[in-house]
Design brief:
Number of helices: 9
CATH superfamily of the largest domain: Medium-chain alcohol dehydrogenases, catalytic domain
Radius of gyration: 20 Å
CATH topology of the largest domain: Quinone Oxidoreductase, Chain A, domain 1
Length: 330
């Protein structure tokens, strides 16, 4: 039986220490599912960094192939709607957490978890978007659904140099929004302005204890940081504005006040990309293929081999990666 490369996370049950290694698997090692995909590309998201390093309990069964995204070609299917040769992608659904994920040459998954790749979107570009870009698009759609338009005022994006932030800036600027980018890396100012940011804000401005209400600055926000940063953002949203919360790079707590909600009518919109229904996913990818400049996407994307994923995982958690990182798998 043909073997394939895979990154495998294991845990010593006695010490609970987690380890990761590049290994060889065969089809008999795969988990249950009705569609088997030859994985061509995956990517490195913040959650992947947590899973591979073990710095947060993302992986919930061992051993496990991590990787919450993949794109490739169907090689076998027992499900209606998918046939060998179909070009597909996957984001979330617990893949890379409880089910073998994208850091392997083959993946067997449920058909309901897969999307046919939009026409004109190759596997590498699909992973340059990845969960980070797809989450950014869900966030943009959410603030638009809340009534925020370019005429409403500027939108602030936190974690701006990361995958979600970079894509969100590009998407918002393409739609005509004025974007303020929050970053702890001042050396990335030119990079962020190149994506369309009109203003660069130092992360330290939003890192102290939040006031119940502060000066109204932004019509909306896309926040991938959480914690004190999100609390400060909420306190500075204009009347009737909206905040899309889609990440926790700064922590899971929210030391905020109810004041923005009951005195300014601010909406806090939770963005879940993992279990989002297919209709939302299709809407997000339809807009991504329309709004995201492929040349700009290429410009914020770097490529690594599967063997380099552990190194990239450490780097993304340390805030040393910018934009998107794609993984050449097969």
């Amino acid at each position: 039986m043909t073997s394939f490369r895979a990154l495998l996370v294991s845990r010593d049950e006695a010490t609970k220490a987690q380890s990761v290694a590049l290994t060889e698997l065969t089809e008999t090692d795969l988990m249950e599912g009705d569609v088997t995909v030859a994985v061509e590309w995956s990517t490195v998201n913040y959650k992947d960094g947590l899973a591979v390093t073990g710095k947060s309990p993302v992986v919930r069964r061992f051993p496990l192939v991590p990787g919450i995204d993949f794109a490739g070609t169907v090689v076998a299917s027992a499900a209606a709607g998918f046939a060998p040769g179909d070009k597909v992608l996957l984001n979330g659904w617990g893949v890379g957490e409880t089910h073998f994920g994208g850091y392997a040459g083959l993946a067997r998954v449920k058909a309901d978890w897969l999307l046919h790749r939009p026409e004109g979107l190759d596997a590498r570009s699909a992973m340059a978007i990845g969960t980070a870009g797809y989450t950014a698009m869900l966030s943009v759609l959410a603030i638009e659904a809340a009534g925020v338009t370019p005429a409403s005022g500027p939108v602030v994006v936190t974690g701006a140099a990361g995958g979600v932030g970079s894509t969100a800036i590009a998407l918002l600027s393409k739609r005509g929004f004025t974007v303020a980018a929050v970053t702890g890396r001042p050396e990335e100012a030119d990079y962020l302005k190149g994506l369309g940011a009109a203003e660069i804000i130092a992360r330290a401005e939003l890192s102290g204890p939040a006031k119940p209400l502060a000066r109204e600055r932004w019509a909306a926000a896309i926040d991938s940081v959480g914690s004190t940063t999100l609390a400060n953002v909420l306190s500075q949203i204009r009347y009737g504005g909206a905040v899309a919360a889609c990440g926790l790079a700064g922590g899971m707590d929210l030391p905020a006040s109810v004041a923005p909600f009951i005195l300014r009518g601010v909406s806090l919109l939770g963005i879940d990309s993992v279990m989002a229904p297919k209709a939302k996913r299709l809407a997000a990818y339809a807009r991504l293929t329309e709004d995201l400049d492929r040349r700009q996407l290429d410009g914020i994307t770097r490529e690594i081999d599967l063997a380099k994923v552990p190194e990239a995982a450490e780097a993304i958690l340390a805030g040393r990666l910018r934009g998107r990182t794609v993984v050449k798998v097969g």
